[in-house]
Structure formats: structure tokens, C-alpha cells
Amino acid sequence: MYRTKSGEDIFIIDGHVHLWDGSKANLKNVHGQQFIDCFYAYHSNLSPKEYLWPKEKFDNYGPEVMYDDLFVKGYDDMAICQPTYLTDFYKNGFNTTERNYEMKKRHPDRFIVNGAFDPRDGEAGLDYLDELSETYGIKGVKLYTAEWRGDSKGYKLSDPGAQKYLERCGKLGIKNIHVHKGPTILPLNLDAFDVADIDDAATNFQNLNFIVEHCGLPRLDDFCWIATQETNVYGGLAVVLPFIHSRPEYFAHVISELLFWIGEDKILYGSDYGIWSPKWLIEKFMAFELPESVSKETGVQLSLTAKKKILGLNAARLYGIDVEAQKKLLGGVRKAAAVGA
Amino acid sequence: MTTANATAAVDRPSTRIAEVWDRLASVTDPELDESVTGLGFVTHVEVDAAGAVQIGFRLPTYWCAANFAFLMADDMRVAVAGLPWVTNVAIELADHMYAGEINRGVAAGRSFQDSFGAQASGELDGIRRTFMVKAFQRRQEALLTSLLEHGHEPARLVRMSVAELAGLPGDCASRRLVERYLERRTVVASGANAAAQANETAFVDARGALLDADGLGAYLRALRRVGVNAQFNSALCRGLLAARYGDAAAPQAGIEPVHFVSAGDWKETVEATRSGNASA
């Protein structure tokens, strides 16, 4: 919970957190090493100096540190765990639903745990999706369309195989499809970051919500266009938000584009923890004002109302969280949480 | 490959190295529309007495898209091979998931498809064009915005010919922007060469259609996304390169963020932009 200077409490749902294991012991190959190293480069490039972690902590921070960073030091009230399996790179997977669920078992009111599917798993994968739904009651999935699987270096949501999975999601009440758009989707001669398949899937599955993580970066321009066309496409701010520290002028331009094209009801905060931590992200976001030159010329405002929606109310709507009831439920714990300046 | 020129300054390798750097500066990262040297991607250039050139380059991450990496490597090879004294060009991409395939493919002069086999399903012409169009849009937006700020009338701008644009007074602050724009305008040109293109309308959309003076504000508003995206990516790429190779690795002096149109009434254009197909 973040308390403004005027004493107003802002309920915060972190739409994108991980409990990963990128430690040496879990590595399968050089790709796994390069993957965690790349994450660390994002962390070191965009974090304020005083929030930089040593690499050993970054590789595998564990559940206690995570809880502390999110809810005690940080201002999150709830967090959505988004799995990234990467079983070709890591022996026990990088960040699995099963491991994330350990967090939920310890703190059931704090976490929403999402599942994942990979259409290349065929019928067995559909069974696994049923199992995830039954065991964990998942309301969302995180899809990593660039994940390597043997000779395959990724898939698209418009692939016929993916359609079956989205149909099954609809049947199981898994309404929130978080999609990480990443590189290396085959065939290599096409634009690996193309977001057109989201457009396709969102049109075919109007009953599902598509949350494009990182707002389609590095194809923000194309993403804004499809999100304007489709009522069920949302943008997740992970990776975009940290620019607020090192490149606030870029952040101002990007958030104003997002507010202009997709609007304040369709943008979701996500820290991408452990890459970045909620404490500084939230403090800076709450303190951030769009430069007058930008708001005057684009006509958008980053008002307190917009901030509340982005930080929690939009995610609460997608996940059916009753914010007032949840505040009461967390009441006892909340007292211990840090209070914003 | 050009044969070595006997009169070339063999005893002045530093001149030759400078010539290579100069050629490399003309090669762009297709996605960012910025020079590979300005981005800090090129690590070293070596030239031997026989005219063989070795170029080392690196990218911000191990995972950077293979197609862009291949395009940059091949464009570097072609740009440098054009120097009269060059006998051979070896490009060495380091620390990349496809370094082996790319280095071997470019060295052998193989196409992208041949270098990657089943993992590709064609050449890179399509992707190259997609990003040439984005660069065209970004450069056009910057130029038109500047011209409007300098008092040029929209009605006149949308009818101006290429020759008229090129002939705008030399003291015009937009001179550099004009050159950059005309460089990429070829992507929508009908005429085969500069002479044939001189009478074409200078400003058309990505499909080659004429622009509407009344809708120019909305049109530019839509194009601005392309620039915002490219600049954001550029900042990210420079930052990741610096994180990977040390702070001195990437020149951080990027282009200033795109400025928003100060002229024009955005309020009237908002609905038009949202309801019309403003995307090119």
C-alpha cells in the first residue's frame, strides 16, 4: 500500500513478478547463462545505483527476500507470478508455476499465480493446462512465444495449435493471456518482434484479455496500433516503467503515447521483479508528472486517477479482485508495510 | 572483390583504417536507423598490407535478432568491399547466439537463407523493406514537423515536388533533415533514378498516396509513434551494450527525444486519427 501525502491509500497489484532460479547449479547450458546475464544487464542498466544487487543475489534470491522486497520494503499489496519455464536452458526450469505456488501457499492473500502453456506440447499440453486449472485455479497464463524447444525457436499465437489452447482457456475460465513478445521467433527472416499475431488472437477470442507485456517493446508503435483496434488488448508496463529513473524524458513520451492511444484503463503496472524492485518504481511513478509541454501537446494527463488504475484497479478488474474486501483481508499485514513519503 | 590498387597508400594503414571506419559509418542498424559505429557496435578495424580488412562487431545482447545481425554484417561487408584497395573483408560478430552461422555465411558470401537453412524461409528483403519504411516515416515526420515550424504552409508542402524540396534555400535549418529524408524516400519512389523522381510529389505516405493538407496534423501524430519507439529502443540498446561491455562501450550521446508538434490543433485531430486508418 502506498499512502499519498494527503493520506490516501493506493492499492497496488504488481502485474508481473518472478521467483526464478538462475543459479549455476540449475544451468543446463550456455543459453541459460546468457539468459540470466541478459536479465542482469537490464537490471544494472536501468536501476538506481543504490538498488543494484550483486549478481549472486540476482541469480537466485529465494522466497523470503522476494516477500520482503515486494510487500515489506516495497509497496505492493498483491503480486501476479508470471512463469517462464525455459526447460531447454535450466534443469528444473527457470521460473515455474510449481515454484511460484510455494509463495502462494505461504501467503495466500498476497499472490495470484498464473500458469503457462506451450502449443508445441500438443494434447499433453492441453492436459497440463487442465491440471493447472484444477490444481491451482489459475485465472491467467503467461506465454513466452520466443521460448526455444528443441529445433523450434518459438511460435505465434496465430498458429493453429495455439488456437486450440486459447479455446481451452476460454472453457476453463482462464481469461487473462499475458504475452511476452520476444526475439528469435522462426522463421528468422521475419520480424522476430512482430505483434500482429496478438491482433489475430484478440480478434478471434473476444472473451479473453490479452495483456502484452513490455507494451510490445521493441514494437511499441505497432502495439499501440493494434491495441487501439482491439478492445481486449492491454499493455503491461514492465521494462517501460524503469526508464522513469534513468531516462525520464523517454518515459514521459512513451507513457503519453500509451495514454493517448490505448488509454488509462488498459495499462497495467508490473515491476518484473527480481529485475526491478517495487520500492523505487512506485516512489518514482507516484512522484512523476508529465512535463507540461508533453501533456499540453498530446492532451493526455497522468492524473492520480490514472495512476490508481494503472497501479492496481485495472488488474483488480481483470482478476476479479474486490479491492475493498482485499484491503480488509490484508489489513493486519498492511500495518507492517512501508508507508510512502 | 576489387583488386589491390598498386598506387594505394600501402605505407599509410591509418588512412585506410579511417576509410573503412568512414564506410562503416554509412551502415545503419535497420531497426534503429542509426549508424553501427555511432551505436558502438564496431569494436575494431584491422587492415593488412595486402588490403585484407578485419572488422569486429558486437551487439547489446546475446539474443539480438539474427536477421538484423546478418543484415548489418552483410551491409558492412558490401560497404567496405566498395573501397578500391580492399582485397578481402572478414566480419567477426562476437558473443551472439548465431555468431557462427552469421560469420561463416557472410565470409562465404552466402545469402541469409543459405546461411540458416531450414530456420529461415526466405531472404531478408521483406524485413529490410519494413524497416526502410519505418525509417522513411520517422525521417518524414521530423522533416515535416521542422518545415511546419519554419512557417511552411501545409497546403503547399503536400504538393511540393522532390526537386522543389531539394532546392529549398540552403540556409534553411532543415537542410540536414531534407538530405536524410530524400535518402529514404526511394522506398516509395516510382521513378528508377533521381532524374525520374525529381518531378514526383515529395511527401507521400508509405503506400505512395498523396497527403491531405487538412489532415496533416493527425497524420504526423500517428507517425510520431514510429520515432518514439525507435528512440526508446535506441536508449535501451545503448544501455544494454554499456551494461554488457562497460560504461565506455556505447556512445550515450543519442538523439534528443522527438519533440511534439507545437503547431497544429491536436484536439481536432484526435478523433480523426483514432477513427481513420492513420497507420501507414
From TrEMBL, chain A:
<dbReference type="GO" id="GO:0016787">
    <property type="term" value="F:hydrolase activity"/>
</dbReference>
<dbReference type="InterPro" id="IPR006680">
    <property type="entry name" value="Amidohydro-rel"/>
</dbReference>
<feature type="domain" description="Amidohydrolase-related">
    <location>
        <begin position="13"/>
        <end position="321"/>
    </location>
</feature>
<protein>
    <submittedName>
        <fullName>Amidohydrolase 2</fullName>
    </submittedName>
</protein>
<dbReference type="Pfam" id="PF04909">
    <property type="entry name" value="Amidohydro_2"/>
</dbReference>
<dbReference type="InterPro" id="IPR032466">
    <property type="entry name" value="Metal_Hydrolase"/>
</dbReference>
<keyword id="KW-0378">Hydrolase</keyword>
